[in-house]
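step=encode ok
step=design start
structure_in=
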């Protein structure tokens, strides 16, 4: 028995914005971000929303698209998890709105999760185990989409210009096959817990603030060296413990936050570019959905096929990281 990642699909904003917009934006502030944006982060363009688009519309579109791809209807799904740093609604849960738009049955677990950029990977791990243990649930829908642009400080060159809009949706299905989640490992390092704060003084002070500047998301400089070394260590141990080799893995799907991070992991582990796609230059950084969009692109390009091993690594502010080994 396994939990199969049966289908995966991606829907993105319809407007394409190039780096030139952001380079010029910060040039007017006497800041040169070209090296940071292009060489460190690896950005080229990103998908943004038009004025008549919303994140909720994008999420619903992705949900409908993956169900159509799977030849399923909303009533066939037993659980839905929506992962986002900033859902359209926190009351009721945005997953309830998705439930309504997808015409799901009454006996469905609806859950919103926020583990920042690691949210969708954590949702995948949790939902895989839930389906294995549940007596009733057989199929689950996971959708991830972030709307960081709504709260980003336009004067913060570390984050403004990094993000794009793309929702990723996937169907998990309990099947009588050797597939799905094989292993996973979390790690937490709170040394940088104060570097990406939102709200900057907590929700207890959010509505009391008279300073508009405090209502923006900002990044303070932080090092990812410890995160990368931990990730490499966990991945190498996990590969060995599960009786396979690095060469047995068809694709490594990493966080798309910065191409420099991927370069460092490739070098440390001896992984080729072909087996560790970087798609942040096309989509921008999409937060929670980013490693699964990399997986989607790898599947679409024929680089990942049924029965292949895939390794996922991503991390979130604070910081929390997760490594997943799965059999597609």
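sequence_out=
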């Amino acid at each position: 028995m396994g939990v199969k990642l049966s289908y995966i699909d991606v829907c993105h904003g319809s407007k394409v914005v190039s780096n030139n917009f952001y380079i010029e934006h910060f040039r007017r502030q006497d800041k040169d971000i070209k090296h940071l944006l292009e060489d460190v982060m690896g950005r080229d363009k990103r998908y943004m929303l038009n004025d008549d688009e919303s994140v909720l519309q994008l999420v619903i579109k992705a949900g409908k698209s993956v169900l159509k791809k799977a030849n399923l209807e909303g009533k066939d799904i037993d659980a839905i998890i929506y992962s986002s740093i900033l859902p359209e609604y926190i009351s009721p849960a945005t997953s309830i709105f998705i439930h309504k738009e997808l015409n799901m049955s009454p006996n469905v677990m609806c859950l919103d999760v926020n583990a920042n950029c690691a949210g969708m990977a954590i949702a995948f791990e949790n939902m895989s185990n839930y389906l294995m243990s549940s007596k009733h649930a057989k199929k689950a829908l996971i959708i991830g989409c972030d709307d960081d642009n709504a709260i980003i400080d336009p004067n913060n060159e570390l984050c403004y210009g990094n993000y794009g809009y793309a929702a990723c949706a996937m169907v998990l299905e309990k099947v009588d096959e050797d597939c799905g989640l094989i292993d996973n490992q979390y790690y937490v390092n709170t040394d940088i817990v104060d570097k990406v704060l939102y709200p900057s003084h907590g929700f207890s002070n959010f509505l009391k603030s008279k300073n508009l500047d405090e209502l923006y998301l900002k990044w303070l400089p932080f090092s990812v060296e410890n995160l990368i070394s931990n990730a490499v260590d966990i991945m190498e141990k996990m590969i060995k413990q599960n009786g396979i080799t690095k060469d047995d893995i068809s694709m490594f799907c990493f966080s798309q936050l910065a191409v420099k991070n991927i370069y460092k992991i490739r070098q440390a582990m001896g992984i080729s570019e072909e087996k560790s796609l970087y798609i942040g230059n096309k989509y921008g950084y999409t937060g929670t959905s980013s490693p699964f969009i990399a997986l989607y692109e790898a599947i679409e390009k024929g680089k990942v096929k049924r029965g292949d091993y895939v390794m996922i690594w991503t991390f979130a502010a604070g910081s929390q990281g997760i490594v997943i080994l799965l059999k597609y």
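step=design ok
step=annotate ok -> The domain at 181-327 is CATH 3.40.47.10 (Peroxisomal Thiolase; Chain A, domain 1).
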